[in-house]
Amino acid sequence: MENTGTAQRNKELVLHGFARFAAGDIEILRTLLHEDFLEHSPGNPSGRDAFIAYIANAPVAGAKLDLKRVVAEDDLVVMHYRMTTATEEVAVVDIWRLADGLIVEHWDVVQPVPAPFETPNGMF
């Protein structure tokens, strides 16, 4: 059976971190990520310090992030948002796994947002 208390705490932790990161605070990741953080996105490094160094120079660091929905269950938090940079607009789904109040693992799916006529029901 799902531990709703844990799921809610994880959701609140990730939401707080997302808000701080979206406001430009990359250092918030140092308090959120486990030292041995595992990354599953191609090209992104694992390990807290390596991941933060990578993200600090990635387009997401300066992007506008518009959160659309969050789902939390057990040790997982899923976020769906629009990321807008100077050159692109993408739909992102992040999946974060937490243990003992820290993010220990991450997966994502990133998709360019097509022209409105291509998605009459919208991406979000």
Verbal overview:
There is one protein chain. The protein is 27% helix and 39% strand. By secondary structure, it is α+β, with helices and mostly antiparallel strands. Strands 1-5-4-3-2 form a five-stranded mixed sheet. A hairpin with a 4-residue loop joins strand 3 and strand 4. The protein is globular and about 45 Å long. The mean pLDDT is 95.
Which features characterize this protein?
Nuclear Transport Factor 2, Chain: A; 124 residues; single chain; alpha+beta; 27% helix; 5-stranded mixed sheet; 5 strands
Distance between the termini: 30 Å
What is the CATH class designation? Alpha Beta
How many distinct domains? 1
**Oligomeric state of the chains?**
single chain
**Looking at CATH, which topology would you report?**
Nuclear Transport Factor 2, Chain: A
Which strand-content bin applies to the residues? 35-45%
Number of strands: 5
Structural class: alpha+beta
Question: What strand order characterises the main sheet?
Answer: 1-5-4-3-2
- What is the N-to-C succession of helices and strands? HHEHEEEE
How is the main sheet built?
A: 5 strands, mixed
- Unreliable stretches (pLDDT < 50, length at least 5) are none
Radius of gyration: 15 Å
> How would you describe the shape?
globular
The CATH architecture name reads: Roll
Mean pLDDT equals 95
Residues in helix, %: 25-40%
User: What's the tally of helices?
Assistant: 3
